[in-house]
Amino acid sequence: MAFLSDTLARVKPSPTIAVTNKARELKEAGRDVIGLGAGEPDFDTPDNIKQAAIAAIEAGKTKYTAVDGIPELKKAICAKFARENGLSYTPAQITVASGGKQVLYNALVATLNPGDEVIIPAPYWVSYPDMVLLAGGTPVFVTGEMEAGYKISPEALEAAITPKTKWFIFNSPSNPSGAAYSREELKALTDVLMRHPQVWVMSDDMYEHLVFGGFEFTTPAQVEPGLYDRTLTCNGVSKAYAMTGWRIGYAGGPEALIKAIGKVQSQSTSNPCSISQYAAVEALNGPQDYIAESRVAFERRRDLVVAALNTCPGISCPTPEGAFYVYPSIAGCLGKTSAGGAQITDDESFATALLEETGVAVVFGAAFGLSPNFRISYATSDAALTEACARIKAFCEGLK
Fold it and tell me: 63-285 in CATH: which number?
């Protein structure tokens, strides 16, 4: 009898975490490494948020809380949804967890049965398929090609829906491509979903505030109120407020689903960190200046990276609408040999050779379900990005 679970054999470790760890190991060994793998703002958490956490510690707010969030935070989340998304939720319709990932995982565990299908647009965040598999479901992929801005068409979505489809996972702006759907593009997808009442929508809005060039963010239940009763609108403070390590994610949805999610959480982690919750209250209720300031910096970095990568032989890099990622194609590099003698047969061999020969760490596209590409996180300094792009250009110029 095998000791490890058969379910565990269905999933793989996170490639993004693997790349980040590899870059860290090389740095510790003395290599000059520029890590562009982690999806994490390089800015510090705003001072008002840190001070709120300190005040919570000093006030002794260090005990267990309600399993799925303190009342103050749930109230702040309701206000945020109403203010920014035009969505009306009560505290009973809100769940808070230790990061956005836990919210998604809890929802899938609470709802999926063997044979249930979950539609996931590709390229996708690396964790979506594996969370579906861990929860006993079957991921179904719909590809958005680079020529379409990495966005899926309504026709492709409709073709993927079957009687077994339970969820459609929607992520805009997207990790890894940065693609964001306009209101009109999203309405075309929600029109499809309205024709299939068995399909629920899991909208991952984590990069909501990181949109550029006047782009207007919208979320499915906002665009199509008819989907409100079967949509879980997910978000968090990690990206918007540079609070990745604080681990606070949240969601709004139908009360029965929220209760089921709370039941899963009550028997796994129980409540999120109490201090992080009080910090998140300040993040949502306090001054919002940081969001606009960071958006300016990220847009500048996007433009820097896109322009630089498009001068690299064999690389084509579209300009994304949001998030802090670019997802260039390396189709023109395939079949070549690097200056160090590596055969570039796919995006994984490209990323491996790039790291070993130049010290630039990126994540290969196969991890996100669309090749031949790689992902760069430009959530780092302008100087580091400039140097990294120069190394990538030199690497590409050395391909024969």
Answer: 3.40.640.10
Q: Which residue has 């399909």 as its token pair?
A: 199
How many CB atoms are located within 10 Å of the residue 224 CB? 19
What CA–CA distance (Å, rounded) separates 291 from 242? 9
Q: Where are the domains of the chain?
A: 8-44+290-397, 63-285
Which amino acid belongs to residue 344? I
Query: Rounded CA gap, 335 and 303, in Å?
Result: 29
Rounded to 5°, angle at Cα 281 from 268 and 261: 25
CA distance 23 to 36: 9
CA nearest 264: which of 91, 113, 90, 111?
111
CA distance 193 to 157: 9
The dihedral built from the CA positions of residue 33, 34, 38 and 40, taken in this order, carries a sign that is: positive
Residues in the chain predicted with pLDDT less than 50, given as ranges, are none
pLDDT at 15: 77
- Amino acid 260: pLDDT: 98
What is the 3 state secondary structure string of 224-277?
Answer: CHHHHHHEEEEEECCCCCCCHHHCCEEEECCHHHHHHHHHHHHCCCCCCCHHHH
Burial (0-12, 13-18, 19+ Cβ within 10 Å), 384: middle
Contact in structure between 177 and 320 (CB atoms under 8 Å): yes
Q: Report the SS3 class of residue 34.
A: strand
Q: What pLDDT was estimated at residue 303?
A: 98
In this prediction the pTM is: 0.95
Each residue's pLDDT tens digit, 311-326: 999 999 999 999 999 9
**Which helix (DSSP H) or strand (DSSP E) does residue 201 occupy?**
strand 200-204
**Cα four-point dihedral sign 170, 173, 176, 179:** positive
For residue 109, count other CB atoms closer than 10 A to its CB. Answer: 19
CA distance 123 to 169: 12
Q: In Å, what is the CA distance from 87 to each residue of 70, 93, 113, 223, 314?
A: 20, 11, 29, 10, 45
Reported as a single tens digit per residue, the pLDDT across 331-345 is 999 999 999 999 999
- CATH fold, domain 8-44+290-397, is Aspartate Aminotransferase, domain 1 (3.90.1150)
Strand pairing report for 360-361 and 94-97: unpaired
For residue 28 the two structure tokens come to: 């510790």
C-alpha count within 13 angstroms, C-beta hemisphere, residue 83: 9
